[in-house]
Each structure stands twice: as structure tokens, then as C-alpha cells.
Amino acid sequence: MHILIGVHFNFTVNSQSHGHGHMPLKTETTVEYYFNNAYLYYCKQHDCLRCSNDHEDSVLLNGVEQADVDNFISNYIEYVLEDTELRDAFKASVKKQLVKEAVEDE
Description:
It is a single chain. The protein is of the alpha+beta class. The chain has a domain at 65-106. It contains two helices and five strands; from the N terminus they run E-E-E-E-E-H-H. Helix 1 runs antiparallel to helix 2.
């Protein structure tokens, strides 16, 4: 089963590491990867989502902001888990965390 959740990203593909050799993708481009043992990690400091296979080979999605991940999680809870109570609790938790961070930044 494949489920598409409405989160859109503009991204480029690095042919080399550390920002060299960008290949911009058009909106109609689809890149498909298969993982035997997928692990997803979000790095807040770098706005980067890393998808790795067995914590080894990985795909980096740079420019993925925390709000994008939050939106994905909220949609996943609502449409895949079909749990609107949990979705609402997650959204409230995110809002509380954003307020806390705003206060700390002042």
C-alpha cells in the first residue's frame, strides 16, 4: 500500500557531498528509493531530514523545516492512523513547544 500525504518540498539532488554538484528537480520529478530497514532522523540545526538504510547508506533532504515535518506527522496521524484526537494533541504539543522556544529566544 502506498499513501501520499500532501507535503510538498522544493529540493535539489547533490551529486557530491557538502553542497557541490546540485541537480535541481522539477515538480514532476519522482525519485524512488527502497530501504530494507529504514530509519528517519530530523536534524533541527541543519533543517535536514535523513533517511538511512540500517543506519548506513542514506538520503539527505536538505531544507526540510521543522514545520514541514510537523505537518507530515499531523497528516500521518489523521489519514493513516485515523486518530483525530491524537492529531489534535500533537498539534497542541507543537504549539506549546513553539511558544516555549519563542520565550527562550527573547
